[in-house]
Amino acid sequence: MINDTGLLQSLGIALGLGLLVGLQREWEHNRLAGLRTFALVSLFGALSGMLAQAHGGWVMGGALIALAAITVPGYMASLQEKEADPGLTTEIALLVMFATGAVTMLRHHMVAVVIAGSVLVLLQGKKPLHQMVHRIGENDLREIARLVLIGLVILPVLPNRSFGYDGVLNPFAIWLMVVLIVGISLVAYLISKFLSPSRGAALTGILGGLISSTATTASVSRRSHGPPGHAPALVAITLISAAVVFGRVIIEVILVASGVASEVLPPLVAMMVLAGIIAVVAYRFSLKSEPPSPGDTPPSELKGAVIFGLIYVVVLLAVSFAREHFGQTGLFTVAAFSGLTDMDAITLSTASLSQAGQLDASTAWRVIMTGGLANLLFKAALVIGMGSRVFIKPVILGFAAMLTGGAAILAFWP
Questions:
Q1: Among residues 131, 162, 181, which one ends one of the domains?
Q2: Of 277, 245, 246, 281, nearest to 394 (Cα)?
Q3: Which is nearest to 190 in space by CA: 175, 205, 210, 176?
Q4: What is the span of the domain harbouring residue 94?
Q5: Closest C-alpha among 347, 293, 280, 342 to residue 316
Q6: Of 49, 231, 303, 352, which is the most buried if we count CB atoms within 10 A?
Q7: What is the 8-class DSSP label of residue 301?
């Protein structure tokens, strides 16, 4: 048994947390339970936990039965009123706060505080949570379910050890990259869907860069044949998404190769800053124009995730093979071809090899930078082939400045 000081402290925390959650229910004018009821239920849970330590777990079982016996009649009475859907939120919250009170007697005070805070947030967030659910369509829900499938069902059962050529194939690590890319794209899409429709070019470009800068460039280039007044905003979206790619690359390096990040990141950060300055200048010119809204279709698909995983494996093997047989020249060739349409595969594979000690940091960032510059060249080709005349010139000037700066970093960075 804990001493009296600890006992009183736990009882006080249970009472305070019950008052906190009860305050929200009182503010909502809930007829079943309010400020005093929640405080008493939490205190009842704490006392039951204290008695259970001395007399056995049956005390907790009996206390839960007693609480249910008191709560059920109140719920049945609410069913007879004119409310179409009285719900069970308050009743479940009472049970959770009873258990939270019991947790305080185990001296897990921080856990109890986190639980009570979460309950408060869920109760207070009823309206925005319901609005969010109503804005999620069937396609969105299907993509969320797929992310759960690949991240929480498939990933944990994959073996976390190396196989294959040069020991570079780790099924768990490879599939983790799939989850990472799909997750980033889906989160960016959901953010764009739930934020205010009055988005500016900056937000649209940022989200486009997170989802897919190449796809964003192609889409915006097609739209550039519309009203000429939209051209400045479309230029800003394209250049911002290109700058965000380097921010995305930096995040991926931190996640995959934190051990060598201090050596790999500085030149990549310099490139991101340069691209960011160019994007900001373009954005300043776009403030008086209205950008088109982002698409309404979720970007992630299970088929696309699997294809990315296969590309990642091919790039991983190609980088390892080129490193062993052709030296740095082979690595940069692989990076240039891989980076044309997608930066993620070459970034993640190179960072993984550097983290494993199979590639030095100086070569790693140069390989990634080469892929980034190749990606800019490919997007420039898309702009020239698909864009309107008024759109092409400023975008190509921005890309040219980025390419020149990136080439200078490659050539002169120590």
A1: 131
A2: 281
A3: 210
A4: 4-131
A5: 347
A6: 231
A7: -
Query: How far apart (Å, rounded) are the C-alpha atoms in residues 400 and 412?
Result: 18
Indicate whether 91 and 159 sit together in one domain.
Answer: no
The Cα–Cα gap between 153 and 122 comes to: 26
The answer to whether residues 345 and 278 belong to one domain is yes
Residue 157 DSSP class? G
Report the C-alpha gap between 132 and 114 in whole angstroms. 23
Please give the structure tokens belonging to residue 93. 């919250």
DSSP element (H, E) containing 400: helix 389-412
- The tally of domains found in the chain comes to 2
Residue 191, CB-side half-sphere exposure with 13 Å CA sphere: 15
Co-location of 155 and 302 in the same domain: yes
Which contiguous run of DSSP H or E holds residue 309? helix 302-325
Question: Distances from the Cα of 276 to the Cαs of 23, 242, 250, 372, 402, in angstroms?
Answer: 47, 9, 14, 14, 9
Q: 131, 159, 183: which is the final residue of a domain?
A: 131
Question: 197, 293 in Cβ contact below 8 A?
Answer: yes
Q: Quick check: 160 and 148 in contact, CB under 8 A? A: no
Q: Which residue has the tokens 């690359």?
A: 249
Question: Does residue 245 sit in the same domain as residue 268?
Answer: yes
49 neighbors 41 (Cβ within 8 angstroms)? no
Q: Give me the average pLDDT of each 10-residue run along the chain (414 residues).
A: 69 84 74 76 85 80 79 62 58 83 84 84 72 66 76 83 70 75 64 56 76 75 78 88 92 90 93 95 80 52 62 67 68 79 81 86 92 90 87 94 95 90
169: three-class secondary structure by DSSP? strand
Alpha carbon distance 140, 95 (integer Å): 32
Burial of 73 (0-12, 13-18, 19+ CB in 10 A): exposed
CA dihedral over 372, 376, 377, 382, signed as positive or negative: positive
The pTM of this model reads 0.57
- What does the alpha-carbon distance between residue 239 and residue 158 come to, in Å, rounded to a whole number? 39
How far is Cα 164 from Cα 166, in angstroms, rounded to an integer?
6
